[in-house]
Here is the input.
Amino acid sequence: MTERVKQALREQRIETPSWGYANSGTRFKVFRQEGVPRTPYEKIDDAATVHRFTGVAPTVSLHIPWDVVDDYADLGKHAADRGVALGVINSNVFQDDDYMLGSVTNPDPRVRRKATDHLLACVDVMDQSGSTDLKLWFSDGTNYPGQDNIRARQDRLAEALQEVYARLSSDQRMLLEYKLFEPAFYTMDVPDWGTSYAHCLALGDQAQVVIDTGHHAPGTNIEFIVAFLLRAAKLGAFDFNSRFYADDDLMVGAADPFQLFRIMHEIVQADALKQDSGVTFMLDQCHNIEPKIPAIIRSVMNVQEATAKALVIDAEALAQAQRDGDVLGANAVFMDAFQTDVRPLLAELREEQGLDPDPIAAYGRSGYAEQIRADRVGGEAAGWGA
Ligand code: PSV
Ligand code: MN
Here is the structure.
């Protein structure tokens, strides 16, 4: 059993977000931190550092245009030289004045064209970077009843998605993320998994849904969504983070480790942890007040801990209790696993892999934080509004 658990954990992969290494904040204030990367190259250096101490984070997601460079093959080489690779390409059609009334659903055909062209340009980036996944998130929606025609906006969305889908090569995927609210407050054009699922279904096998754990109403049963989408082979990726109130983008597993465990249980049950399962496990987080690199290391470890707990569930006993209709027995098996301290197991596994058993302490001792603080002086720190 331990070897099975360890093997699954050895194979696990967690992708970190380039923007998580940059300055970020709320709409009230972006707090600058020292040593923050100034370029996509420096973001990759930080991502490689997270991988160096965790051993399970070998890819980094890029966000276009935040991570625009002249030569993506060169950026890819920079990553490879540091033991990591470029991952999912995230499209950004939400930070241009033209997009005030929407991007691909904008009532103005000129703006729709501009937005769709950006998405197509993201596929060009993928061709150069070797990334296979295009992640789409739209801030599109309306603030006031009557502001625009809800159904016409769905038609515009479908049309743009179709055009981009047709541009994908056979080894590329389109991942469509949803979000309940914000920045639009009355209707979002892709507010929930059902809307995303329906569009992906219409598009075809290369379109799948992204679950961002922070993008639901309070109390939403996210593991149900996971189970449903896995069954339909439509779960493409996770954006992991934690929320208390809205899209807080806090460290995954920080607000509700039990929810993360329940999600990972669905993943383990469906054997979807393996890299060839087609589910990509990404972080989508912002570290506004805490140091970024150790926060990302902590996040990776939180995912590992939830996964390990899901893996130690006594699947036989659980299935038997379920067959017997033994409500309390089944719940007890489930809770036993959740309450297991898996940290010694993970520490042992890391030592076996030549890693420090305590990645955060090892990072602290490494001198990397001091080095980037000394080196990254001058220039403009990456981030929004910093
Ligand atoms: C939007 O809130 C989101 O979750 C999308 O994934 C974006 O790509 C990301 O955050 C960064 O803004
Ligand atoms: Mn997200």
Remarks:
- The pocket of manganese (II) ion (ligand 2) is lined by residues 137, 177, 212, 239, 284 (CB under 6 Å).
- The CA atoms of residues 149 and 245 lie 29 Å apart.
